[in-house]
């Protein structure tokens, strides 16, 4: 123990808490690692395997690119339709789930439940569920994307509704407008930017989601990707990956543009 | 009165688009696009009815959840593997994102290194975890290792981007001051930047862990271990009762993970 | 004519904001309601068009008992009362024209309102009103691009597009600088005269009230403690309204009013401090 002790930034208690937490972290990490039963020979050969894969992928199959145009368009369709459906459905859910517009406690609980349940189930699981219900195809994909997005959209729209300026609502009421007119004139303009922002942002996310639901047969480019991988057509795989990259960047650009357009 | 009528002024709402024709054209294009999309799906009335029936069947078969001892074991085993994957991936991902962040920081990395760093981050962020997982599975084989690698790579993209931005924002003057003491570039970074962003990294790690739990429950669908494998097996065997049980279990774990993460983040701040 | 009798309001919190206030507003007079913060001025004006639901008493406008009306009838009654707010309460993201036209919402069908279709006459009148409040040429500006004074003018235009039988004005100048405040007050006076409607106005600045009002009503703790012409508003009346002083008896009157004069000398800011304190 030297005088350096006085330099310590933390109180002894804080230090003990930190040590305990660090220890817990280490224990959790070790326990987790052991629970995974990783075979170390696989781990060791992983880098070579990856290099091998990359070598087999290059160069991309250029001729194949025309074949993937239509699944790519389908992917965008799924994202657009799914988002449109989600946005429509999330308006009533948001009205239920916002403290200032909810009709009663039960409605609020229902709204909150829909929001958290739909968000907690990944899009691929929703896709499986809808494939069970409707059989494989785009329809299952659209519904999966839509249902998964309801919670996200409703949550953000509900937050926007909670933040509206009540003064504007009162002013319109004071002119003798009825409640529908008040909603159109005083509430809608206030949540419009959030609404557009949420829709386009979610559409952007949904484009990514639409690229993978094909793995379980719910349409889009994922079907092609899955097939190419299963038949070890690695050059095609690279072509598809590049196409996905392109479409993802495209959607990011479009969504950013639209959000800038609506203030 | 008649003259008054004639000089009556008109008004129409100015539009964000170039003019009203453009606006209506844009709306028309959107409408046509949606119709085209819908038409592409070929939804028929019969299909909707059929779907409704099988959906109702699925929901009713969901209760009570099917839990024979054997299946309970499968469920727990898969879930433990998923959570273990999420823990390992979060830790490794956070740690190795530090060097990658330095590679991807424009103000310190040499050009070629910078492009490699940025490339790693962009690819990680652009691709869905399942796409990364399916490729990793082909490289290292089916199992939890593939899941860990995939999740680690996604985590890396998340952290390295944030950290790189942090590094790019630091005060050059301060950096020079530290350099003047004789420290080299890396030392400057390690002592000048990393401690500053450490509290944020801890908060973000917990946030990312939450996300990784979600992802760890699905990567098994493409063979990368965890409860997702159990889920896809029951799906392939048409064992929809057990399938729904697993889905409910996943929802429960995800919600608990979110609560824990929110609580812990609240406590650190 | 507006006739308010024994108006009471007790909020759910238990706050007795109005303890029975009565007054009449007729012709084209401007009646200013003054009083310290929390006196119940806003509550009073909001109870008249029932943005706040009164808990007792009655409000009568041209023979119609507003307090007893059903929802639908209340909407019709509200069309006859133009309201102007301290924070303007414009729809920030809509254009000036749409804000002004929203004054007609009580008259258009919901379907037309949904499509934002207004009658040609309404549009023409909106242009005229905009000219009148000095905002000609601003019809396509968005409300959030305007200055405070301009916004309040839009608020006034919205109210007069209703063709109201009375204007209810809640502290129209508190968010404005002194010069703009005067412009707004001038405009309100002009409207009262030209359209021949009364104006009931809550106001913080006593000097503005004295300058513009035909009659002044003083509220304190939910009760009317003063009513008279601006000339009647002497130092003792001010003391009564703002400091709750009893009406001084004649023996100590001279002394007390001297003290009051000192503190109340530099009127507007001083009043402001008194209110907050
Ligand atoms: N919505 C409300 N809920 C509960 N109490 C309220 C509410 N609005 C006002 N009050 C209370 O009623 C009383 C009168 O408030 P009011 O806003 O009418 O005063 P005011 O004279 O307009 O004051 P100011 O000059 O600050 O605008 C105050 O005590 C206030 O706390
Ligand atoms: Mg007030």
TrEMBL record, chain A:
It comes from the Archaea. CDD domains: TM_PBP2. Gene3D superfamilies: MetI-like. It is a multi-pass membrane protein. Its main location: membrane. InterPro entries: MetI-like (IPR000515), MetI-like_sf (IPR035906), PhnE/PtxC (IPR005769). Keywords: Cell membrane, Membrane, Transmembrane, Transmembrane helix, Transport. Coiled coil: none annotated. The chain crosses the membrane at residues 16-36, 78-98, 123-147, 212-232, 238-258. One of its GO terms (molecular function) is ABC-type phosphonate transporter activity. It is found in: Cell membrane. Residues 72-255 form the ABC transmembrane type-1 domain. Pfam families: BPD_transp_1. One of its GO terms (cellular component) is plasma membrane. PROSITE patterns: ABC_TM1. Belongs to the binding-protein-dependent transport system permease family. This is Phosphonate ABC transporter, permease protein PhnE. The lineage of its organism: Archaea, Methanobacteriati, Methanobacteriota, Stenosarchaea group, Halobacteria.
TrEMBL record, chain B:
Residues 79-261 form the ABC transmembrane type-1 domain. Pfam families: BPD_transp_1. Its main location: membrane. One of its GO terms (cellular component) is plasma membrane. It is found in: Cell membrane. Keywords: Cell membrane, Membrane, Transmembrane, Transmembrane helix, Transport. It is a multi-pass membrane protein. This is Phosphonate ABC transporter, permease protein PhnE. It comes from Halobacterium bonnevillei. The gene is phnE.
Automatic annotation (TrEMBL), chain C:
Residues 2-246 form the ABC transporter domain. Signal peptide: none annotated. GO terms for cellular component: membrane. Residues 252-269 have a biased composition (Polar residues). One of its GO terms (molecular function) is ATP hydrolysis activity. Keywords: ATP-binding, Cell membrane, Membrane, Nucleotide-binding, Translocase, Transport. Pfam families: ABC_tran. Residues 229-277 are annotated as: Disordered. InterPro entries: AAA+_ATPase, ABC_transporter-like_ATP-bd, ABC_transporter-like_CS, ABC_transpr_PhnC, MetN_ABC_transporter-like, P-loop_NTPase. PANTHER family: AMINO ACID IMPORT ATP-BINDING PROTEIN, PHOSPHONATES IMPORT ATP-BINDING PROTEIN PHNC. This is Phosphonate ABC transporter ATP-binding protein.
């Amino acid at each position: 123990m030297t005088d350096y002790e006085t330099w310590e930034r933390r109180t002894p208690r804080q230090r003990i808490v930190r040590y305990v937490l660090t220890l817990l972290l280490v224990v959790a990490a070790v326990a987790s690692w052991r629970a995974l039963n990783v075979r170390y020979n696989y781990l060791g050969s992983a880098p070579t395997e990856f290099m091998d894969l990359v070598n087999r992928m290059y160069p991309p199959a250029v001729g194949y690119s025309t074949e993937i145009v239509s699944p790519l368009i389908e992917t965008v369709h799924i994202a657009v339709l799914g988002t449109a459906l989600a946005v429509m459905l999330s308006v009533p859910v948001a009205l239920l789930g916002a403290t200032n517009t909810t009709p009663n406690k039960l409605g609020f609980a229902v709204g909150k439940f829909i929001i958290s349940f739909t968000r907690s189930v990944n899009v691929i699981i929703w896709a499986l569920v809808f494939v069970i219900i409707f059989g494989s195809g785009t329809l299952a994909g659209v519904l999966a994307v839509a249902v998964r997005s309801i919670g996200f959209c409703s949550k953000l729209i509900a937050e926007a509704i909670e933040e509206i300026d009540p003064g504007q609502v009162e002013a319109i009421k004071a002119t003798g407008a009825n409640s529908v007119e008040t909603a159109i004139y005083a509430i809608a303009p206030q949540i419009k930017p959030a609404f557009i922002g949420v829709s386009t942002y979610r559409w952007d996310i949904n484009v990514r989601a639409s690229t993978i639901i094909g793995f379980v047969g719910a349409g889009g480019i994922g079907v092609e990707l899955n097939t190419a991988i299963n038949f070890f057509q690695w050059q095609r795989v690279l072509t598809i990956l590049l196409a996905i990259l392109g479409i993802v960047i495209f959607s990011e650009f479009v969504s950013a543009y639209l959000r800038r357009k609506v203030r | 009165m008649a003259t008054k009528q004639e000089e009556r002024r008109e008004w129409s709402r100015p539009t964000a688009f170039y003019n009203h024709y453009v606006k209506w054209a844009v709306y028309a294009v959107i409408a046509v696009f949606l119709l085209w999309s819908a038409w592409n799906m070929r939804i028929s009335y019969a299909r909707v009815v059929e779907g409704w029936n099988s959906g109702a069947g699925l929901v009713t078969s969901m209760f009570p959840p099917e839990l024979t001892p054997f299946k309970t074991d499968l469920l727990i085993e898969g879930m433990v593997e998923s959570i273990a994957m999420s823990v390992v991936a979060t830790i490794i991902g956070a740690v190795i994102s530090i060097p990658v962040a330095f590679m991807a920081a424009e103000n310190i990395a040499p050009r070629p290194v910078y492009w490699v760093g940025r490339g790693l981050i962009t690819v990680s962020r652009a691709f869905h975890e399942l796409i990364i997982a399916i490729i990793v599975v082909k490289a290292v084989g089916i199992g939890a290792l593939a899941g860990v690698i995939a999740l680690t790579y996604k985590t890396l993209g998340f952290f390295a981007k944030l950290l790189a931005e942090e590094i790019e924002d630091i005060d050059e003057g301060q950096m020079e001051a530290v350099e003047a003491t004789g420290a080299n570039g890396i030392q400057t970074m390690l002592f000048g930047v990393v401690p500053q962003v450490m509290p944020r990294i801890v908060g973000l790690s917990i946030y990312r862990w939450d996300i990784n739990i979600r992802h760890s429950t699905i990567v098994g669908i493409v063979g990368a271990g965890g409860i997702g494998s159990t889920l896809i097996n029951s799906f392939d065997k048409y064992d929809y009762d057990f399938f729904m049980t697993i889905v409910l279990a996943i929802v429960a774990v995800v919600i608990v993970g979110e609560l824990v993460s929110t609580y812990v983040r609240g406590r650190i701040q | 004519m507006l006739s308010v009798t024994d108006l009471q309001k007790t909020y759910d919190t238990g706050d007795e904001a109005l303890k029975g206030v009565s007054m009449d507003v007729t012709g084209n007079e401007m009646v200013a309601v003054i009083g310290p913060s929390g006196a119940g001025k806003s509550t009073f004006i909001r109870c008249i068009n029932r943005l706040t639901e009164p808990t007792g008493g009655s409000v009568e406008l041209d023979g119609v008992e507003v307090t007893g009306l059903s929802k639908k009838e209340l909407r019709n009654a509200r069309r006859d009362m133009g309201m102007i707010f301290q924070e303007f309460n414009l729809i920030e993201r809509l254009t000036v024209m749409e804000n002004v036209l929203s004054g007609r919402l009580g008259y258009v069908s919901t379907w037309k309102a949904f499509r934002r279709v207004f009658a040609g006459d309404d549009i023409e009148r909106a242009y005229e009103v905009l000219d009148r409040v000095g905002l000609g040429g601003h019809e396509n500006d968005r409300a959030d691009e305007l200055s405070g004074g301009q916004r309040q003018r839009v608020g006034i235009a919205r109210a007069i597009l209703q063709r109201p039988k009375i204007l209810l004005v809640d502290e129209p100048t508190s968010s404005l600088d002194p010069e703009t405040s005067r412009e707004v007050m001038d405009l309100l006076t002009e409207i009262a005269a030209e359209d021949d409607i009364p104006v009931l106005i809550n106001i913080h600045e006593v000097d503005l009230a004295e300058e513009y009002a035909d009659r002044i009503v003083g509220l304190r703790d939910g009760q009317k403690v003063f009513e008279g012409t601006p000339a009647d508003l002497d130092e003792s009346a001010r003391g009564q309204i703002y400091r709750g002083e009893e009406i001084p008896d004649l023996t100590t009157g001279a002394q007390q009013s001297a003290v009051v004069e000192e503190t109340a000398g530099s009127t507007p800011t001083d009043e402001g401090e008194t209110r907050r304190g």
